[in-house]
Each structure stands twice: as C-alpha cells, then as structure tokens.
Design goal:
4-stranded antiparallel beta sheet, 9 strands, AcylCoA_DH/ox_N_sf, Butyryl-CoA Dehydrogenase, subunit A, domain 3, 3 domains, flavoprotein
C-alpha cells in the first residue's frame, strides 16, 4: 500500500524496501551491540557501506541537495523503518534526519558545507542538545524553561549548562546546541567531541535502536565562533519549530514501517501456530486482533498522508503534526501490543523484532512531545479559536 501516488517516491521506496528486507533485516541478529543493547558504530558503518553500494543512502535527499516532498518522504522513510536497523543503514534515522532538514532550511552556505555535507554523506552522526534534566528544573516539553546560557565574548559565544536525553551524543561528530541569551534562544553548530562538553552518564532506557543511547551532559565554558551560530540571535525557538513539525512526522513514518513488519510477523505466526485443533488465526480472539491491526495501520497511514500534504502546502503544520503524532503513536502502540499478545511467549523474546518494536513504540509515545503535551496544546488551540470566532 502506498501513502501517496507519486512516481519519484514510489520508485525510491521500492528500492529501499528491497534493500531493507534483503540486506538489512539479516543483521537484526548481529551481536555488535553496546552494553545498553544499541547498535555499535562499526555495525552502522558496515550497513551504510551496503546502502551506499545499493544507491539508497540518504534516499530522501536528492543529488542536488533538494528534499523529496513530505508525501514522497513518507513512502521512503516508511520503507526504511521495516527494520529497526533500516533508518541507521539508510541514514534516515533521528536525530540526523531532522538535523539535516534544519540545516538545509536555515544553515548558511558555510554551515551547510562544513556540517550538513558530512551528514548527507553518512560519514558522521549528530546530536541535538535541547532537553535539560527535569530534576534541575530544565527545559523538556516546555522549552521556555531552558537554563543553558550563552553570552557573547568578542568573536565567540560562551555556553554553559546541563542537557539530558541527548541522543547519540557520545559518538556524534556534530552537535546543534540550544542556549538562551538576553535576546532569546540561540542555536550553535559544534564540532564533537569537545572537551567543554562532558558526558556524565548514559541511562539505560527501554528503547535500543539509537546508537549511543540518550546522554546526560555538562557544558562548561564551551567557546563557539560567532560564525557557527545558526541563523540570528534570539531566533532559536523559531528554528526549533522549523525542525519540529517535520521531525514529529518522520518519526511516525519510520515507526509505521516497523509496525507493518511486526504485523507481518504476527500474521505469519497466527497462520502457522496450531492450538485447540486449528490455526490460531481462526480463533476470533486472534483474528479480530489482526483485523484491528489492519484498521490501525491504515488510519496511521492516512494521518501521515494528511499531515504531509499540509506541510507540502507550505504551512507550518504544528497543530496537524501534533494531531498526527498523537493518533499515530497511540495506534502503533496498539498494534505493537497486539502483535506481542498474538505471539504469546514468543512475542516477549528476542527471537523476532516484535519485542523490540513494542519497546521502541512505547518510548515513541514520549519523545518529540508526550501524547498528553500534544493534547494540552491542541486544547489550548481549541479554546483560542473559540474565542477568536466570537470577537
């Protein structure tokens, strides 16, 4: 099933799907994992060499640097998501994919040459330093609580603060750091590693698809050349919105692919496994769960298509991406949970990717804005629109 009837997206997505199913999926049992269970750098590098040879590395960005439409991107990123390793192999994983989009939209020619080009080539990874430790009252769902500061010192800016849940910071070669100045929030591009950015710990988390985990870091006296500020001082939150709506949507795309694959595995199991005198799909309790999965998969697909269409129309799509993130993440959670349930004991083992997909989707309901934060934001908009309609 395709999300959008567009030729470029369909052709690229078909090549990506073949690659992920035939080349990437066999690596799912590869033992190269760190102590948190995340893929190691050498495993990712090997997969990317395969993707480069197959012509499917960074497939959502064309040779001239232009992006596919959001609707075409949906087709391609859903295909990369058919394996938890697919986005890493094809260089469409978070946070790199969102960072590439942001730098392509906002970065100066020099920043694009120095920082965007290596990302597009899949030679380095990146990290986005925005979230801060909740125990210290830092920014999370409310970015206005940001405590990390930056101050001008001649031709440099000096940054100090603490960050938390910074995905992949340990292995990243590029960082985008958010901090607040008197003028407001600012963003900076930083070469990593840097002695002024110290990884304090990497907590064990429920998800294991992102190399390096989600780090807690201290930034102490980080000096960044003024030329490495992204855009203008005080515009950081505006640039975050440029990244945010598409990034929410691309998360939905990738995890839709993962749940399609999990549902395929559960369907195959249900058609083979015998219990009480017949294959278990013929028991209504199992058959109905698979039927419900088809409905949730289609609804998720349609929500992604609708939001992509809004973004392709040139509007910000903040409310639309909030609605889509809520609807899709909750639907995918239902699908993943049913797949585990259908497969019984096998579903909670590492014998298939179903168990991992369940864990990853559970985390997805929180990152890029928890469901409840998006619902609260939408409720505020409903109230605001009601008031404006009566003025």
């Amino acid at each position: 099933m395709s999300i959008a009837d567009t030729g470029a997206g369909r052709e690229i997505a078909a090549r990506v799907e073949r690659f992920v199913r035939e080349v990437v999926a066999p690596y799912e049992r590869d033992s190269r994992r760190d102590h948190h269970g995340c893929p190691t750098g050498d495993l990712v590098a090997e997969l990317r060499e395969h993707a480069r040879a197959a012509g499917v590395l960074t497939p959502h960005i064309l040779a001239d640097g232009s992006h596919l439409s959001h609707r075409d991107t949906a087709l391609v990123l859903t295909a990369t998501g058919l394996s938890p390793l697919g986005p890493l192999a094809c260089n469409t994983a978070a946070p790199d994919e969102g960072n590439m989009y942001l730098l392509g939209k906002v970065g100066s020619p020099d920043i694009q040459r120095r920082f965007l080009a290596p990302l597009l080539e899949g030679r380095v990874s990146s990290a986005f330093f925005m979230t801060e430790p909740a125990a210290e009252g830092g920014a999370g769902s409310d970015p206005m609580m940001m405590q990390t500061t930056c101050r001008r010192d001649g031709d440099h800016w000096v940054i100090d603060g603490r960050k938390a849940f910074i995905t992949g910071a340990q292995a990243a070669g590029i960082g985008i750091v958010m901090a607040k100045a008197e003028a407001g929030a600012c963003m900076f591009l930083v070469d990593l590693p840097n002695p002024a950015i110290r990884v304090d710990r990497v907590p064990r988390t429920i998800d294991t698809s992102m190399p390096g985990g989600h780090c807690e870091v201290t930034i102490s006296g980080l000096r960044v050349p003024a030329s490495q500020m992204l855009g203008e001082p005080g515009e950081g939150f505006k640039y975050a919105q440029v990244r945010l709506a598409p990034a929410r949507l691309t998360h939905c795309m990738r995890w839709l692919g993962a749940c399609r694959r999990a549902n395929e595995i559960a369907t195959d199991y249900a058609n083979r496994r015998q219990a009480f005198g017949k294959v278990i799909i013929d028991h209504e309790g199992i058959g109905f769960m698979l039927a419900a999965n088809l409905i949730d998969l289609k609804q998720a697909e349609l929500m992604i298509d609708w939001c992509a269409d809004v973004l392709d129309g040139g509007t910000a799509g903040i409310s639309e991406s909030s609605m889509t993130k809520v609807a899709v993440s909750e639907a995918l959670m239902r699908i993943a949970d049913r797949c585990v349930q259908i497969m019984g004991g096998t579903g909670v083992t590492e014998d298939t990717i179903v168990e991992q997909v369940f864990r990853e989707i559970r985390a997805f309901r929180i990152y890029d804005g928890a469901t409840e934060v998006h619902l609260w934001s939408l409720a505020k908009k409903i109230r605001r629109d009601w008031k404006e309609a009566r003025q």
